[in-house]
């Protein structure tokens, strides 16, 4: 299959058109390699400054400790006083986030 661009004079059915496409492909591959290299260098520099990737945790250590205390609190009947949904609402996070932080805290 060939590509013909009438107003640009590009025709990949000719040797010159094929060479033009190969050159464009090589330039694109070169630019991609440069971007990858710059990204790796930037990440290495950030790590050297002590930065790590990813988002900051939604809950801090103190909040996780409070959430754990709320989760483990039981009433006179032996049932939990607070549900995970209530704890999540209290800290403004989702239930899965609460579960994730609680499981990290307990070492599971």
Mean pLDDT: 88
Give the helix tally: 4
Taken from the alpha-carbon principal axes, the silhouette is elongated
Biggest beta sheet summary: 2 strands, antiparallel
Quickly give the structural class: mainly alpha
Share of helix, binned = 55-70%
Into how many domains do the coordinates divide? 2
Topology:
Layout: E1 4-5, E2 10-11, H1 15-48, H2 61-72, H3 84-91, H4 95-106
Antiparallel strand pairs: 1-2
Helix pairs in contact: 2-3, 2-4, 3-4
Description:
With 108 residues, the chain is mainly α. It folds into two domains: 45 residues; 46 residues, no CATH class. The chain is built from four helices and two strands; from the N terminus they run ββαααα. The protein has a two-stranded antiparallel sheet with strand order 1-2. Helix 2 packs antiparallel against helix 3, helix 2 packs across helix 4 and helix 3 packs across helix 4. It is elongated, with a radius of gyration of 28 Å.
């Amino acid at each position: 299959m060939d590509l013909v661009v009438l107003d640009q004079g590009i025709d990949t059915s000719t040797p010159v058109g094929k060479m033009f496409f190969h050159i464009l492909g090589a330039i694109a591959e070169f630019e991609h390699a440069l971007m990858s290299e710059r990204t790796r260098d930037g990440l290495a520099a950030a790590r050297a400054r002590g930065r790590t990737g990813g988002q900051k945790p939604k809950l801090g250590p103190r909040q996780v400790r409070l959430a754990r205390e709320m989760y483990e609190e039981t009433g006179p009947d032996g049932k939990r006083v607070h549900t995970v949904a209530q704890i999540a609402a209290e800290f403004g996070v989702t239930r899965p986030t609460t579960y994730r932080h609680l499981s990290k805290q307990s070492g599971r």
